[in-house]
Amino acid sequence: MTIDRNKLAVIHIVKKELGLDEERYREILRDCAGVESARDLDDASFRRLMNVFMRSAHYRPRPDGITLRQKYFIGNLRRELGWGEDHFRNFLVKYHHRDQLERLTKAEASRLIESLKNVKAHAGGGTVTGVPNGHW
User: Fold this and answer.
1) pLDDT higher than threshold 60 for residue 124
2) Among positive and negative, which fits the CA dihedral 86, 92, 95, 98?
3) 3-state DSSP percent of the chain in helix, strand and coil, to 5
4) pLDDT tens-digit profile of 32-43?
5) What 3-state DSSP class applies to 6?
């Protein structure tokens, strides 16, 4: 059994965020999951891989800081809106008084997600799907 495309996308986003070169990335796949390619991961090995990634210094936010899941969802909303980095940063500063996503608390990130969902709905993008129980 292999993992779905969304999980593969998450792995590659995290790989890029961590700045892993191909050699180090493959080494991590072999060490934690015993596979050569992320396509060969099952759900259990995917969770092990993500745990390894999350233990890195890159993902050690404050206890009340934005979660990886929130960060990923915000990135998807930004792409769906067609916003570049500058446009998004201007929105973040103007309406949420932060200049970096990583400086948001979990509660602030939830408010940002709701803001982006509203912008998308008003821009004719419809409702946002895939939001479990509206909790972010």
Assistant:
1) yes
2) negative
3) 70, 0, 30
4) 999 999 999 999
5) helix
Residue pair 99/89 in contact (Cβ under 8 Å)? The answer is: yes
Measured distance CA(113)–CA(77) in Å, rounded? 8
27: left (phi > 0), else alpha (psi -120 to 50), else beta? alpha
In contact, 29 and 64? CB cutoff 8 Å:
no
Q: Where are the domains of the chain?
A: 5-59, 68-126
Q: What is the pLDDT of residues 64-86, one digit of tens each?
A: 888 878 888 999 999 999 999 99
Following DSSP, what letter does each residue of 42-104 receive, concatenated? -HHHHHHHHHHHHTSGGG---TTBPPHHHHHHHHHHHHHHT--HHHHHHHHHHHH--SSGGG-
Q: What is d(CA 41, CA 35) in angstroms, rounded to the nearest whole number?
A: 7
